Amino acid sequence: MPLNAALLDAYFARIGYGGAAARDLATLGAIHRAHILAIPYETLEIQLGRSNVIGEDAFFDKLVRRRRGGWCYEMNGLMTRMFRELGFATTRVGGAVARELIGDAAVGNHMVGLVDLERRYVVDVGLMDGPLEPFPLEARTWREGPLEFRLERLDGAWWRFHNHAHGLARSFDFTEEPRDLAWYEPTCRALQTDAASFFVQLCFASRRTTDGFRALRDATHFDLRDGVMTKRELTTAADYRRELARILGHDLGDELDALWQRIEARVAERARNADAASERA
Q1: pLDDT tens digits, 89-136
Q2: Together in a domain, 152 and 180
Q3: Which of 39, 98, 205, 262 has the most Cβ atoms closer than 10 angstroms to its Cβ?
Q4: 208 shares a domain with 184
């Protein structure tokens, strides 16, 4: 559906943006920062037996109307649509998280945006704990406070983004080849259904802050502040409910119990497997 002023206003209200709508770097950066600070990254639908859908309307409905969080396809899908509607020359391209480890099987497991102004910029609010700001598409190292990021040019058409040292997603590769939404669908579906997928095996929720991030990976809680990471294991449903609500901005309600039972069972199974491996060693 064509975006109208009311829907654009709804998006700005969702991310708490009250600035200009000019086609310039200041606006690009302000919207990017507002989005990543306001909307959490989360994969709860997969854990609760529902599907995350690829589609312009689906992105807007979930993240804006229903005020939920999302994963990379939804987060970057929504933001790149908004940039296009504001008149920015915006391209969606295929990313590959951890391609240096698993090879080309990673291609398509991440959506990345490119925006052309006086030069080309990378926009990405879908990495859980990546940069707050858009960054130029050029080989360089830069810092946001205590966090250091790097972009390098690989052989051929590929670029590689290196996240900060505490990043839960350490890197992703991408090319500049434009992709339509249908291109992402097979990988999006596999990531939600394949038993080997991290998104099936683990539940993720994360919120970026101005000085770091808070995140849950199953029952492990991460809190990065001013370059210092603390990590602890949650052992009760009440503790998990409290930390998840802080990240999401709302309580999950009745679905929390089923989610926690699933996470608690996985944690116990991993502990048993580690004990068995230790005994065999």
Answers
A1: 999 999 999 999 999 999 999 999 999 999 999 999 999 999 999 999
A2: yes
A3: 39
A4: no
What DSSP assignment string belongs to 49-103? T-PPPPSHHHHHIIIIIS---B-HHHHHHHHHHHHHHTT-EEEEEEEEETHHHHG
Identify the domain containing residue 221 by its residue range. Answer: 199-280
Confirm whether pTM is higher than 0.85.
Answer: yes
204-209 vs 171-178, strand pairing mode? unpaired
CB 92 within 8 A of CB 112: yes
Residue 46 lies in a domain: no
Q: How far apart are CA 94 and CA 92, in angstroms?
A: 7
With beta carbons less than 8 A apart as the criterion, state whether 59 and 80 touch: no
Instruction: Let me know if residue 47 belongs to a domain.
Output: no
Total residue length of the chain:
281
